[in-house]
Amino acid sequence: MYNLALTAQYAGSHVISLSLPWPLIPVFLTALMFPASIAARDLQVQRLMTTAKTQQENFQFDQALLTYKQATQVAPGDLNVTLAYARAARALWHFRDVPTFQQQADAAYERARLISPSSTLPAFEHAQMYAFKEQYARALTLLEPALTLDPNNAGYWLERARYLAASGQETPAITAYRRCWAIDIVPECEAGLKTLGVQP
Amino acid sequence: MKKLLLSVSALALFAPSVQAQSAANSVSGYAALLSIAGARGVFLSLATLEKLTPAQFKEQASKLRISEEAFKQLFDRKFNAAPMEFVVRAVLESATGKTLTNEGVKRLIAENPSLVAVNNLSQLATLINNPAAATIANRAATLATAPVTPRGGGN
Questions:
Q1: Cα–Cα distance between A60 and A66 in angstroms, integer?
Q2: A187 contacts chain B (CB < 8 A)
Q3: Cα separation of A23 and B44, whole Å?
Q4: Which of A76, A94, A156, B46 is the residue whose CA sits 20 to 30 A from A28?
């Protein structure tokens, strides 16, 4: 009685009967569950990200940070979500100097690097976090992976040159500015060289 | 925690005004001060602002980690749109903890219009969270004292 049959009649004479493969139903359902759960998760993350952005625009920075954190818990392998959380924590560290926010940002950038080892963004943004606090030695170390992954990016050489110049390391700063200038025509690199008394 | 809740409530109360200003495409002096308070995690409400006396400016400015001058020029604008350099100056002072000048900030805006320009509240929120603007913020402090033409500059 459990064996249902689908019947179709063609040309009035041929009858084809198809048995519903009951043993395979759970397999089909399980296979469908996977994309459905991914879609539901994506939808939830999208909703959380929109909420966090709105909270930031209403200057509810603490709530925004919590919402971003929630989003990272829903999608722990999403680079964009992790970076958004890192940025929110970093901004609060900049304004409040509270070590908790610094640790949150550090951990998030570290996680972002693990999520996407080929992406230069985590290293670049993490470096900026410390450059802003004028901790140039740490910023230079953090920037290194970005230059290793993308050595022909003039912007990263400019960033390196600025950190070196700001920390009083003029000779390596000139080298970095020159490397930047050799890669592309970047007015900031030219200006940096002139400021250090060197012609491009 | 209590402080945070109070701050959140204050901002929530102010939300309608914030949205109204967003539509007007400008940032008032009060809105700028309240946004900085939000970023600093300091309790500040519209009611508190309206009751402030000049004698309290220094203390309030110190809580927001901005100079008294930066505080006063925003405070004086009240609900009226504040010049962009006033808003940007206060945000950058609060973020860096350094005292800037209106002129230095003006030059910074002219050099990086896409990074630090603030014409509405959405852009103000972006500035507070913008990493690129954050990295150039320290340059504003240098610009505050640097001559217009850098030494060794020119051809």
A1: 10
A2: no
A3: 65
A4: A76
Q: Which domains does chain A have, with CATH numbers?
A: 43-195 (1.25.40.10)
Please name the residues in contact with B21: beta carbons below 8 A apart, sequence gap of 6 or more. B27, B28, B31, B120, B121
The answer to whether A22 touches A36, Cβ cutoff 8 Å, is no
Q: Which helix (H) or strand (E) holds A19?
A: strand A14-19
pLDDT for residue B110: 85
Model pTM greater than 0.90?
A: no
Which one-letter DSSP state was computed for residue A153? -
State the ipTM, two decimals: 0.76
Per the CB < 8 A criterion, the answer to whether A89 and A72 are in contact is no
User: Which of B129, B130, B151 to probe by mutation at the A interface, max A CB count within 10 Å?
Assistant: B129
Residues of chain B positioned with their CB less than 8 A from the CB of A132: 95-96, 134-135, 137-138
